[in-house]
Amino acid sequence: MYDVIILGAGASGLFLSDFLKNQKILIIEHNSSIGEKIKVSGGGKCNITNKDVSYKNYYPESEFVRNTLVKCSNKDLLKWIKQKGLKVYELKPGQYFFNSSKEILNVLKPNCKIIYNCEVLDVNEGFEVITSKGIFKAKNVVVALGGKSFKKLGASEKGYEIAKKFGHKISPIKPALVGFTIQPKESWFKRLSGISVMADVYVKNKKFSQNILFSHKGITGPAILNASLYWDKGKIKIDFLRGKKVKDHLKNKHKQIISQLPFPKNFTKEFLKSVGIEDKKVMFLKNQEWDRLKLLENYEFAPAGTFGFERAEVTKGGVVTDEISENMESKIVKGLYFVGEVLDVTGELGGYNFQWAFSSSYSAFLGLSL
């Protein structure tokens, strides 16, 4: 009989096992090693947290998230990193990375029993955990199985299935932090594959001022990945000129359009082609052509869909937090805990999801220590 069985050796499960020093713990992991998703995150450098963390960086915004982050903040995570003898670097403005993801994995190696290549088949009442390698019993079970994204790393819907079995509601799961596929009208995006530009992207009441990247499948890049977290259907707006006006750039009437717009030449060529304008001297532009050029200030398009779970960095949706206590314990079944991505809490790009893994696991630790 174990005090705690942790299902999953991703970020949430590893953080929790590090906090739980004086209990008999078992970790069950379906991969052959710990932290498979950590290894590839942030280009192999692991974007661990952000300089500015607020509940407003998470979908959906809630007091549940706000209270969890207050209890265990980004400052607490940075302090933990320092105590472990690790260093982080601000490789992008406000975003903290390691030199290599291996650094954090080295300090998160569990000091408890862990069974690898082990599939969780079921969890029965009384916390009898049935697996492909036997049956194990515990006083408490923590579901840290993550979401559905990154299937090649072993992601599954098992965490949601366990939650449902014990009576929990699951909000619809969707790919998030993922690129968009496009309608035929935006086929010019595909001809720009590999080109990136800075832009302001608007979705609902959110604005993201970051790079967008065109691809053979559609459109991606940091601003688009963040927009995908808040998009369900309908249009997204892109301001390619980031608050400026077309006329601010096309000041010289004797020069060609392409030579004056602040974009890679191929981008401007394809945009002009898409709106039916030939490259010409500004003095020859007609009024209706000026109107079409103004689309650069307010380009609206409706994505056809997303690149899907295979390309998504995280899963949006999950175990509804109204049924979870402030210590991540089920309000329905005492001793059952949920941490990390399996919950209906999803952070923006920039270290927010690792922060959530840390903060939610610390809250669970407090509950398990009572």
TrEMBL record:
RsdA/BaiN/AoA(So)-like insert domain: residues covered? 174-314
Instruction: Cite the RsdA/BaiN/AoA(So)-like Rossmann fold-like domain residue spans from the record.
Output: 3-364
In terms of InterPro entries, this protein maps to: BaiN-like (IPR004792), BaiN-like_dom_sf (IPR023166), FAD/NAD-bd_sf (IPR036188), RsdA/BaiN/AoA(So)-like_dom (IPR055178), RsdA/BaiN/AoA(So)_Rossmann (IPR057661)
Which keywords belong to this entry? FAD, Flavoprotein
> What are its cofactors?
FAD
Q: Which residues cross the membrane?
A: none
**The protein's name in its UniProt record:** NAD(FAD)-utilizing dehydrogenase
